Amino acid sequence: MMSLPFYHQGDALKIVLLSDVEKLGQAGDMVTVKDGYARNFLIPVGMAVRADPRNLKLLEAQRKAAEAGAMRELRTHKALSLKLAKTELAARVQVGEEERVFGAVTSADIADLLTAQGIEIDRRIIDLPEPIKALGVYTIPIKLHADVEAHVKVRVVKEE
Fold first, then answer.
1. Residues 7, 14: contact at Cβ < 8 Å?
2. What's the CA gap between 38 and 88, in Å, rounded?
3. d(C-alpha 51, C-alpha 67), whole Å
4. Is pTM, for the whole model, over 0.85?
5. What is the signed CA dihedral for 21, 26, 27, 28, rounded to 10 degrees?
6. Domains contained in the chain, CATH given
């Protein structure tokens, strides 16, 4: 009897998923599926590769590179968080009688103020539940990364 490679067991085949497959597993999982399902669908459409030594080595190298990239990104976001913590912005607004603010300070305004200071931030990551409509000092959270939240101080003052 001929010996089958470790990734091929009779009519079953061990594969590594490259993307999430409903009712089968998530990207990176090693699963055993019917030989025909793997050869005729999963592998040709790029959802999986055979779990042979060459592919496993390649996937491990890709995983390590992705981890290193994620660590670099996390360090960058932490450094930006420290810079934002030291930043104080002044939003100048027009006020009427009894110090009532005309308009409001929005996340887009805060993003513009940060851009003016040389810090590019997408307004969608500024966690401002509702626009600021009063004079004062506010600490605004900015969600830079899943694990990093920065805070920037915004001073809303009347325009002279």
1. yes
2. 57
3. 21
4. no
5. -130
6. 8-51 (3.40.5.10), 78-158 (3.10.430.100)
